Backbone:
């Protein structure tokens, strides 16, 4: 069961922070290799190069440790700087965002992290919810805010910018992310990403670009 208030993520002191980082990195490798159920605190301690006693000083159990890893993954992805400068034209912004977004999703380890969160979300819904709120929902909100500016300026005709932002992100994933997520295909090439995102952008603008009279 997940505690209502997760343990603080940043112990005080440089030595504590360094040791905690060592543990988190070791645990990340074990979780990605073995999944949540296959991982044990003993295996995590070995991977991190610490004793089980030291491990328990920082984390009460593997659920708390897994939460910390997901939280850090969420924060790292949430800090990715997509360029949503409202002065940029829509086509350029969508193309650049779409390519950066897919490269983030399909980066080494990205699929494994998503698979691990998906596998545990039913048992630990708060973990899945925080990951969604801090990664997926945040990115949708940023894109939607950009679209709203261009609706106001008359470039786009969109009734629901949150929905439109979600639609564009899903269009960009088409034929790329799901095969990567399920290990049916390797990470797509930059050329293939550009091709798919270009198609997604054309489809999006065909539906939402304001028709000039």
Residues:
């Amino acid at each position: 069961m997940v505690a209502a208030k997760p343990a603080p993520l940043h112990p005080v002191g440089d030595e504590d922070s360094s040791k905690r980082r060592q543990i988190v990195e070791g645990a990340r490798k074990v979780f990605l290799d073995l999944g949540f159920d296959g991982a044990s605190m003993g295996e995590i301690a070995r991977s991190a190069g610490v004793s089980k006693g030291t491990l328990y000083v920082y984390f009460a159990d593997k659920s708390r440790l897994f939460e910390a890893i997901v939280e850090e993954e969420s924060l790292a992805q949430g800090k990715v700087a997509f360029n949503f400068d409202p002065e940029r034209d829509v086509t350029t912004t969508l193309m650049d965002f779409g390519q950066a977004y897919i490269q983030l999703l399909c980066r080494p380890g990205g699929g494994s992290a998503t698979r691990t969160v998906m596998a545990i979300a039913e048992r630990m819904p708060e973990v899945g919810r925080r990951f969604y709120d801090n990664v997926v929902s945040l990115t949708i909100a940023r894109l939607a805010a950009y679209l709203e500016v261009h609706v106001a300026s008359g470039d786009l005709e969109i009734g629901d910018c949150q929905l439109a932002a979600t639609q564009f992100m899903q269009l960009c994933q088409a034929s790329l992310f799901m095969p990567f997520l399920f290990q049916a295909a390797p990470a797509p090439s930059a050329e293939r990403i550009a091709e798919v995102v270009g198609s997604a952008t054309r489809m999006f603008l065909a539906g939402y670009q304001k028709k000039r009279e």
